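ok, trying the design again with the full structure, not the truncated one.
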């Protein structure tokens, strides 16, 4: 901060003045035996009670969009594999579920923008350095294949018999494979988008968030498959659910155990409750997927619901951690000081 004449000034030690680092005890205070008492934990505040960073203005539509986008991407991959291996029911569920989630995801994105024409404006340029621009074009490239494959699944038998219907059915496989080719980018780009913001909890976890989101996407798509497809045909969904759940849980633990202060945003408050519930549901769904869900339709449905719910809560928990990290100035001030200290000592802060 600087004074009115532009010269820098140190934060005042008066806690009521809204200083960034308040120290209640003077550096010369000592006890009766001559020892210096331990100072309380420093209290970080912003000037005039305002946060250092503005909290995200996004509402519930954004974490819901993160979930539906991942569900669509995972479903497209599952549908493509089912198509190539002759699993008709799983292919149909993946195509329809993937396109339905894409429609919901697009609606949520436009709703958050507030004005639908803003999405159209994003198509005017392609900027490789912008995660938002790259994500927009991934959606544009992914959508037609997903939509065409889904429409082919909905054609009545009499339409399939005609020439247009036959042509559409023949195009469904290449369309589905096209959607599957762009699906990993769709599942991961939202993680890159969040990590490129100034939000401490998201930026600090920039290396783990893509793995967290892709694992969650795989688990949710597998959950949908197990929910609506008979166990005899849902083997790939069960295996994908176990792999996705493992990746999601491992990535979440890596985020929580990173060094420094910022991971505390994930392990306290509302974010902690959401993520604990997510981990419990995801692990329960994965365990059921590799055991009881192989033989029992009710168990498979329960496992699928658990994986879906776990994925939803993971996205909302990650979103809440980011919001919480912007409200406490310590999440900004402490890492900054650690980087400055490390730079002075010739070290690198991860």
């Amino acid at each position: 901060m600087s004074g009115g004449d532009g010269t820098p000034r140190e934060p005042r030690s008066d806690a009521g003045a809204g200083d960034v680092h308040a120290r209640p005890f003077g550096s010369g205070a000592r006890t009766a035996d001559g020892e210096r008492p331990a100072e309380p934990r420093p209290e970080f505040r912003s000037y005039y009670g305002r946060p250092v960073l503005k909290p995200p203005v996004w509402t519930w539509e954004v974490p819901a969009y993160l979930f539906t986008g991942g569900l669509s991407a995972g479903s497209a991959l599952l549908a493509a594999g089912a198509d190539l291996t002759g699993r008709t029911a799983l292919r149909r569920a993946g195509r329809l579920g993937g396109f339905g989630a894409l429609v919901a995801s697009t609606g949520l994105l436009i709703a958050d923008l507030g004005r639908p024409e803003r999405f159209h404006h994003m198509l005017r340029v392609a900027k490789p350095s912008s995660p938002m621009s790259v994500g927009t074009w991934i959606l544009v490239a992914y959508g037609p294949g997903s939509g065409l494959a889904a429409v082919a699944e909905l054609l009545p038998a009499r339409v399939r018999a005609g020439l247009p219907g036959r042509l559409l059915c023949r195009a469904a496989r290449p369309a589905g494979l096209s959607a599957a080719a762009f699906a990993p980018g769709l599942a991961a780009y939202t993680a890159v988008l969040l990590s490129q913001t100034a939000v401490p909890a998201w930026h600090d976890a920039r290396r783990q968030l893509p793995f967290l989101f892709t694992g969650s996407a795989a688990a949710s798509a597998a959950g949908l498959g197990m929910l609506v497809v008979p166990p005899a045909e849902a083997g790939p969904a069960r295996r994908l659910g176990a792999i996705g759940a493992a990746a999601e849980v491992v990535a979440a633990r890596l985020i929580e155990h990173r060094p420094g202060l910022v991971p505390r945003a994930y392990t306290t408050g509302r974010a902690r409750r959401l993520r604990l519930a997510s981990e419990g549901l995801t692990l329960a769904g994965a365990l059921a997927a590799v055991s009881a869900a192989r033989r029992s339709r009710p168990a498979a449905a329960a496992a699928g619901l658990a994986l879906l719910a776990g994925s939803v809560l993971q996205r909302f928990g990650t979103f809440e951690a980011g919001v919480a990290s912007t409200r406490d100035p310590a999440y900004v001030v402490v890492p900054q000081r650690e980087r400055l200290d490390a730079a002075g000592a010739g070290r690198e802060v991860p």
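Keeping the full-length input from now on. Confidence is low (pLDDT under 50) at residues 1-29.
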